[in-house]
């Protein structure tokens, strides 16, 4: 094969043996180089894309390598500088939000009043059970009173009833006048939605006439919650008063009660205070409705009566 390749370059076969071994090796390398170039040329000539028109050649999209240069400035910092130059101060955003528990969601141990505050005879079984339950509840109340006095030394059972009745009267006066700011200082966040719910577009007339019986404390509770910082006191006060209540709708029509007829009301009102709070105060928290209490009078709902249908000529 080597002799045939040399004949291609015009070298006779009888002179091959006369060549130096180094020359023979160089001739072989040269022949291999020529053969490689010929193969590359044939491959290039036989390429289909070379003979196809340019409209049929579809370029293949490769991976994008778009490098985004880093920003030379912080946009938030630039905005702050511009607002500061314009004289507008940006309030600092608080990363953590604190939760303040100012009141509880209900009543710890609801007081169950006897029907009509009647006293049964101790000779009967029902009277004995009633007296035993009353002694048990009284013992719990005295324990709670001692715990409340540790945080509020001025707390007294004899004087708290009158103070609670004043809070009750002032809260209802502000409810009738729609003084929300003052009402928040007299009732808890649990009681406020229940008092103002459904009072939109209504007029309330409420007035206190007299106290039929002196208000008295009947129930005191001060349980321990999750930790020592969450210490709340709840006091249930029996209030028996005579009042006037009238509710009018947005058209001035009477819906409930009367301004001329007074009504006697017996209420068991719960007052609550966050004892460990520096500015904590006793506020109206909830109301206990006994199971034997008579049902309230329903509201007189006013509706629109549609008029006669008019023809196009009468309209």
Automatic annotation (TrEMBL):
Q: Which residues form the Tim44-like domain?
A: 141-289
Q: Which UniProt keywords apply?
A: Mitochondrion, Ribonucleoprotein, Ribosomal protein, Transit peptide
Write down any Gene Ontology CC term: ribosome
The UniProt similarity line reads: Belongs to the mitochondrion-specific ribosomal protein mL45 family.
Residue ranges of coiled coil: none
Keyword Oxidoreductase, does the record have it? no
Question: In which organism is this protein found?
Answer: Notechis scutatus
Pfam families recorded for this chain?
A: Tim44
The compartments listed are: Mitochondrion
**Looking at the keywords, is Ribonucleoprotein present?**
yes
Q: What does this protein do?
A: Component of the mitochondrial large ribosomal subunit (mt-LSU). Within the mitochondrial ribosomes, required to direct the nascent polypeptide toward the tunnel exit and position the exit at a distance from the membrane surface.
Q: What is this protein called?
A: Large ribosomal subunit protein mL45
